[in-house]
Amino acid sequence: MSKTEGPASLSNLPESAKATRRDFIQGAVAVAGTLATTGVSSSSMAAQTPRKRPNLVFFLGEGQRADALSIAGHPLLKTPNHDRIGKEGVRFNNAFCTNALCAPARATALTGMYSRATGALSNEKSHVPLNADIPLFTELLRDAGYEVALLGKTHGRNGFEDRHWDYYFGHNDPGNNYANPFFKEGRNGIVGEQKQYYNVYPDDLTTDRALQWIDQKRGDKPFCILIWFVAPHEPFFRPRRHLDLYNGVPVAKPVTFDDDLKGYPGKPKSFIEAENKIGTTYSHVACGSLEGMAKDYYAGLVAVDENIGRVLDHLEKKKILDDTAILQTSDHGYFLGEWRMFDKRLMHEPSLRVPFMARYPARIKAGTVRDEMILDVDIAPTLLDLAGVPAPKHMHGKSILPLAASNDPNFRKEWYYEYYEWPNPEKVAPHRGIRTEQYKLIRYVLDPSEGELYDLKADPGERINLYGKPEHAALQSHLNQRLDALRSSIPDRQNL
């Protein structure tokens, strides 16, 4: 089976789109400076030792915070199957999203590109496809002989159903009907009409279909399956088996939960006026109390963990677990009462941080833990690296596999964040920012005079805003310059 010469698939596109994709691939500019260093390393490609190409399983969580794992020390939540991936592979303590919102984050995961460059900036225009000239990493895998499948919460531009999937079972929806969910099903690049399924939890059904597809005969072809969960998205409904989970168990209140009663000390107006506040929202009735919301959120993640376990057990029974590379992460984090907030969007740590773990014994030593900063733009290059497929230069991320072999203090020193959607249901103002290993600068777009600046080593809870303080003027100026440089280095595509 020979690999294709070009980095992107043109064979499945209409003639009108072939030239634009070819132009995009050939003319794409590699992102410079700290965004770059994206080239595929010869060591990570492991070209010297031919090996059987692994199957790939990509679990994407929905709003799963980085600390929402028992392996991360959560005092209440138990996630043994998530934990297994981390214990038997590599786990990253500092993984982040670059736009904390569902649809743009999913486009980034599939393309390896920042929202600014894909044009998928927000949850708007969800039925407008990504431009055909932007390749998905799964298309590059198909060119290399993989069979590819996407199942679960797709929630991206047109649910990505216009792209060629060998199997598709998805819903292009922020949530779903948890009791009687809706899905579209398709095979060999053709997706059918939406159907409703009754009396079944959506993630259970997604996993059922995933196991059935894994069992299909495909000769010596490897497979890549994307299993994207919808729980615990609001309204946080639980499967029947967990309706009484956490009854009588107390939920600790975050230390900043009552900061609103103090006038949100140090926070700018754009932060204060956001309406993503627990207990006072008309459009989010599931967020009426911290205890109810948090317990429902955790129960949803227990169900997700069970379904991850079903997949791992199935692969093990088929004796292909160690021949399969597993990657688990989430589209974004979630506020669970910090500053009395729910949801995501804002460039603060609960919203930004995500879990990130990978298991593949042939290339990843069990029990590896790393502290380098990795991003959602690294997902696509990493999965391509696992398959032995070079990542195109237009991708903004880089494979994390070299970190599984040894730490690299220069892997990434700073990175760019931008949140675009306005207006939005929570009135979270658009903003952009830069995060380094020690500092974070946030600038609000609608009111350029407002901002936030934190020393994350001295103040990991982001409680002491240094923005505008004369003694930190030099630091603020430097970070502003770096933010502008990072932003200008990312090719800009309009919100098409």
Radius of gyration equals: 22 Å
Q: How much strand?
A: 15-25%
State the share of residues found in helices, binned by percent: 25-40%
| Structure summary, number of beta strands | 17
Order of helices and strands: HHEHEHHHEEEEHEHHEEEHEEEHHEEEEH
Structural class: alpha/beta
Q: With helices defined by DSSP (H or I, 4 residues minimum), what is the helix count?
A: 13
- Straight-line N-to-C gap: 37 Å
Provide structural commentary.
With 496 residues, the protein is an alpha/beta fold. It has 13 helices and 17 strands. The strands form 3 sheets. Strands 1, 2, 3, 4, 5, 6, 7, 8, 11, 12 and 13 form an 11-stranded mixed β-sheet that branches. Strands 14-15-16-17 form a 4-stranded antiparallel β-sheet, with helices on one face. It is globular and about 65 Å long. 51% of the residues are buried.
In short:
It is built from 13 helices and 17 strands. The chain has 496 residues and is α/β, with parallel strands linked by helices.
